[in-house]
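Re: the 175-residue chain
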Amino acid sequence: MKKFLKAVSIVSFMFVMLLSMASCSGYSFYKDFNEAGAKIEEENIFELITLEDAKNKKAAGETFVLLYGNSTNSECVSLVTTLQVQAEYLGNPDATIYFLDSKDYKTSTDRKSVRDAINMHDPSSNGEPILMTFRSTAVDVDTSNKDKVKTKQFIKDGVVQYASLSSYIFKDLLK
């Protein structure tokens, strides 16, 4: 009888664990940013990416755009809205902006791994958005490096002009 009860207990435990795992759907970019106030639809231009995937895209010479930040930063939430609106306005609603969640890189060692993997000048620790564009195997624009020649085109009075950067991204880079 003890073996039977033990077997029933194990099966019940496994069922509860399986049920709880099924209810955890993982990270949802839309849910996270929508709750933070971003004005985006569930179908949006953002796709979550891992650092390893970004590194591989860069090494493969792909042209792509990466947003590094998180939903706890109001500037990042605003930028997500801006990029979505600009993609639609500029006629490129099927573009993809890859999103790397900075919450995953809290320590200086973590941020060094980002710097080393994709040549980001200065990964932020506070969720401040960093927008990077890649052409071939090189970093084209890196908003964490305001001294970068291409990035300077989108800086006015020390502030990144995301509307003009969006125009470059959706009309020239990802056309």
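The two ends are 69 Å apart (CA to CA).
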